[in-house]
Amino acid sequence: MIFRQAFTLLRQNPFFSVVSIIGTAVSIAFAMVVYMVYDIQTANIRPESYRDRMVYSSYGYSYRKADHSNSNTGMSYQAASRVFGDLPGAELVTYTGYVTMEYCGASPEQGRRCEKRRVDLNFWRLYDIRFVAGRPFDQQEFDACSDVVVIAERLAREAFGSAEEAIGKSYFVGFRPKRVVGVTEDVSSLFTFAYGEVWVPYYTKDPAWGSEGLRGGFEVMVLCKPDVSLDEMKQQIESSLDRLNASLTEYELALPDLSTYAERQFFRDDFLNPMAACIFLGLILLIVPAINVSGLISSQMSRRLSELAVRKAYGASRLTLMSQLLIENLLMAFIGALLGFLLSCLLLWLGKDWMLAGGYTSGNFEVSIWLFLRPAVFLMVLGVCLLFNLLSVFIPAWNATRRPIAEVISGE
Asked: Which residues form a coiled coil (predicted)?
């Protein structure tokens, strides 16, 4: 009966209903955009399925201990393996070389510039990248740094017509022929660490570039064990780094950008938590419009004071009246929330280049709109809907139901 009466009131007051629903939709849309940007950038989403358990080294730099001179960016494989090779809290460690742009194609004359990553076998265990044909390079091929390559499906279609046809064929990377052993699904460059177009093994015996063997071009990604916190892992890495530096005589290695995934994508400083900042901004985007909608609802409530007074005179409790008012407005808020959710998905999809990538898109930055339509996000919409309803309706409903019956009926 309450829901039927609520629908009747919506039809009887079309202007109020439309304004309230649109106000709710716009408010929730902007709040949801803030939440969804943070969620998409930090949640465990395939192929980066373990973001909440990851610690990243960045490339680091080395310098002379005596006077901090001769500073050079980069970390050699030998130095990285000494720091990260024996961490008790690590479930998986993968080393990757500098990402470079190389001319790639089916022949030296036909191709284009692509993003090449130098990776090891653990890279394919850490990132859930689906192979549409073939396989990743094996241990023997990696140890020998063979001329093998894994390419994205888009490149395979361009060069050979299909992923299956690419397997076993020669593919030129930097004008050097390599044998295609695997073809992966196309990975969006939204996934910063999993993204690539061409993957090749690296040579672990490369000589270091000086600075007591510290200089090089590697960074490290560490997957923590489930029972090891990110802070504990950072402490283990820093302790291992101290041991390495203590064994050196002239130079020292620094890893100032040691960070979690959220810190890497958002804030690096300890004084500002990215989740807290997004929640705070989202609440501001909700509270300010809720105050405006609350004023609109207060005006509407003043027209219904006589109705509420008569119902109280016939025995309706204050709780019953407030429940009805909240449910009536919850219906409008829910309709507005659904529209706001769809609007937020549309806004985020249309503006994904600058909202998700800051305008610096590269390679394949295709993002499916289905990425935004997830159960967790929908549950978040319901929670925001309830919060918005309470913020905008509770005080007007409280004031309307506390007025004495005689005062309302007499028109005072």
From this structure: none
Q: How many CB atoms lie within 10 A of CB 130?
A: 10
pLDDT higher than threshold 50 for residue 386: yes
Sheet of strand 251-254, all strands in order from the earlier edge strand to the far edge: 72-73, 61-64, 251-254
Residues 80, 280: Cα–Cα separation, whole Å: 38
Q: Could you tell me the residue ranges of all domains in the chain? A: 2-45+271-409, 58-257
Rounded to whole angstroms, the Cα distance separating 119 from 92 reads 14
Residue scoring higher pLDDT (149 or 302): 149
Structure tokens belonging to residue 151: 């390419």
Give the strand pairing for 72-73 and 61-64. Answer: antiparallel
Phi, psi for 321 (deg, rounded to 5):
-65, -45
Strand order in the sheet with 218-224: 90-97, 218-224, 54-56, 259-260
- Residues facing residue 61 across a β-bridge: 73, 254
pLDDT value at 118 more than 80: yes
Considering only CA atoms, which of 213, 220, 229 is closest in space to residue 258? Answer: 220
Of 1, 37, 107, residue with least CA distance to 274: 37
Gap between the Cα atoms of 182 and 135, Å rounded? 4
pLDDT digits (tens, 9 = 90+) for 267-287: 555 545 556 666 666 666 666
CA distance 196 to 231: 29
Q: What is the 3-state secondary structure (H, E, C) of 99-122?
A: CEEEEEEEECCEEEEEEEEEECHH
> Which amino acid does the sequence have at 178?
K
**375-401 and 305-313 helices, crossing angle to 10°:** 80
Q: Kindly state the average pLDDT of the residues 170-196.
A: 91
Instruction: Report angle CA 129, 132, 134 to the nearest 5 degrees.
Output: 100
Report the DSSP pairing between strands 100-107 and 90-97. unpaired
Give, rounded to a whole angstrom, the gap between the first and last alpha carbons of the chain: 31
Specify the residue for token string 């063979």: 146
Angle at 47 between CA 372 and CA 228, to 5 degrees: 105
